[in-house]
Design brief:
Elements (H helix, E strand, L loop, with lengths): L5 H12 L3 H5 L5 H22 L1 H8 L11 H5 L6 H7 L15 E5 L7 E5 L1 H16 L10 E5 L14 E5 L4 H11 L3 E4 L1 H9 L3 H7 L3 E4 L6 H11 L3 E7 L3 E6 L5 E3 L4 E5 L10 E7 L10 E10 L11 E6 L6 E2 L5 E2 L1 H14 L4 E10 L2 E8 L5 H12 L7 E6 L14 E3 L11
Helix pairs in contact: 1-7, 3-4, 9-11
């Protein structure tokens, strides 16, 4: 994702200086107020998409729908959902709304846990909302102030490293050695740490009690990997501050996050989230589908998240009235267990493969990283038109450096990547299971 330009940064600053009233008031809307606000946004968004986005016009015409048919929530819920594969096939020509130039948009590449590359383009107004929503999210953990420093450990840099000096942010790649992340923590002395759960575990394992007490962190936000409440509670005790989980995606941006009371509040002023009732299990858990309410450049309407969850309306001591995620079951990718017993987390492996998507956008159509045995790892590649031996050799050298001596690594060109035993598409598959827990890279 590119950095925000000066005009976009000023737009965010202006919205921040006027108090971000919209994002401050909506969490306290009554249920009826929120539903009415969402309905008005959805009606405009669906009409806009039908009139200006070729994909949606064709998608809806196939089922005989026109914007005038949208008269109730039931009508909206009957609209056909949109899959990641459909968006990939339509992007950019049939997916970007008329009146927008791709060069003027903020574009982010998503792979997530599915492994299939997908570009998402945001208009500047939507980016302003998402940036302010991020500030609000971190304020759910502690009283986040403009002078507080953040250490941001992620796959790629955030679109801004400060807001004209406010909310300063230091970026460290998730692929950096854990020693480098710890060094950045000690150097920048942030009040807020944003990282994967697996990185947080590694930091904790590599610091003494004295080191931990000297960090003076005020809050930690974890994302992108599944973690249990018990794990977060243990880490919170060790670091002496709240460890709160965030649920988000490139396609829908901010979806839900935990407050200090542990409730997963759905960001209903950013997305309309559904758990599909006709595919719901007996325990109330169903596939999650989301509609982003702000991005008109590349609308995401009833987009399939490929996660399972249950949504409820339980009240929370924090005072927010947004609905909450009662349960969330994301796709779990495998970690790799090496002959020494060392475990490499799925998050690290996903970020390593994410580099493929960023570096070789047209050369690689699809990939799957497979641990066939403790000492043998295969990277399946569905080659694109520009794939060549030089790229294969570069990837071989890069990936071999991640694994210990004695582990064989090979690249295998295929027409279709391997699926799991249940037929699901996962970019990380291991046929090796750990007998006991071990250190995580």
């Amino acid at each position: 994702m590119r950095s925000l330009n000066a005009t976009e940064l000023f737009s965010v600053l202006r919205a921040f200086l006027v108090g971000g009233r919209f994002l401050r008031t909506t969490p306290h809307y009554s249920r009826d107020q929120m539903r009415d606000w969402q309905w008005q946004r959805i009606k405009r968004l669906v009409g806009h998409a039908f009139d200006n986005v070729e994909f949606y016009r064709d998608h809806y015409r196939k089922v005989g729908f026109a914007p005038g048919d949208l008269k109730s929530w039931d009508d909206f819920h009957r609209l056909p959902s949109v899959s990641k594969d459909q968006v990939i096939a339509a992007y950019p020509g049939r997916m970007i709304a008329r009146g927008y130039r791709l060069d003027d948009l903020v574009v982010s590449r998503s792979s997530g846990s599915s492994g299939k590359p997908l570009d998402i383009a945001y208009d500047s107004r939507a980016m302003t909302i998402y940036t302010l929503a991020g500030l609000r999210l971190y304020g759910m953990g502690f009283s986040y102030r403009p002078w507080h420093r953040q250490l941001y450990v992620y796959t790629s840099p955030y679109p801004l490293d400060s807001l004209f000096g406010l909310y300063p942010l230091t970026f460290v790649s998730t692929l950096a050695p854990i020693a480098d992340i710890i060094a950045a923590l000690k150097k920048t002395r942030p009040q807020l740490l944003v990282c994967y759960p697996s990185h947080l575990k590694q930091i904790e394992q590599n610091l003494t009690d004295t080191d931990l007490s000297e960090l003076h962190l005020r809050a930690i936000s974890v994302n992108s990997e599944m973690s249990s409440q018990a794990e977060r509670d243990m880490l919170a005790k060790r670091f002496g501050c709240p460890v709160l989980d965030e649920y988000s995606s490139e396609e829908l941006t901010r979806i839900a996050a935990q407050c200090r009371h542990g409730t997963y509040h759905v960001f209903e002023d950013i997305n309309y989230l559904e758990a599909v009732p006709d595919k719901m299990r007996a325990d109330g858990i169903g596939p999650l589908i989301g509609t982003n309410l702000h991005n008109h450049a590349m609308p995401m309407i009833r987009y399939e998240q490929n996660d399972l969850g249950a949504i409820g309306e339980a009240s929370c001591a924090c005072g927010w009235k947004f609905r909450s995620l009662i349960s969330l079951q994301g796709r779990r990718n495998d970690s790799f267990i090496l002959p020494s017993g060392r475990e490499i987390s799925s998050g690290f492996l996903l970020d390593a493969t994410y580099e493929i998507l960023l570096t070789y956008r047209t050369e690689v159509k699809d990939f799957c990283l497979i641990q066939a045995a403790a000492n043998r790892i295969v990277l399946e590649i569905v080659p694109g038109a520009a794939w060549n031996n030089a790229i294969s050799e570069a990837l071989s050298a890069r990936f071999a450096s991640f694994f210990e001596q004695g582990v064989a690594f090979e690249i295998r060109e295929v027409t279709e990547c391997t699926k799991t035993k249940s037929g699901k598409r996962n970019p990380i598959i291991s046929h090796v299971r750990a007998p006991v827990p071990s250190a995580i890279r």
